[in-house]
Design goal:
Blueprint lengths: L4 E2 L1 H8 L3 H10 L6 E2 L6 E4 H5 L1
Antiparallel strand pairs: 1-3, 2-3
C-alpha cells in the first residue's frame, strides 16, 4: 500500500477550505498536522488523513 502525499493546493481543492482556515484548524487540533517534506518550505499531508 502506498501513502500519497498531498500538497496544499490539492488539500484546498479536496476540502474546499482556504489556506488560512486549514492552518487555523490545525492550530486548534481539528485538522491533520502537515508533514515537512524535502526543502525548507515544502509541506504536505497524507491523503488518508485528509479523507477521514
Amino acid at each position: 500500500m502506498t501513502c500519497k502525499i498531498l500538497r496544499l493546493n490539492e488539500v484546498k481543492t479536496m476540502t474546499g477550505l482556504s489556506r488560512s482556515t486549514i492552518y487555523s484548524e490545525m492550530a486548534k487540533g481539528n485538522f491533520p498536522k502537515q508533514l515537512q517534506l524535502t526543502g525548507a518550505r515544502s509541506v504536505g499531508w497524507y491523503e488518508s488523513a485528509i479523507i477521514q
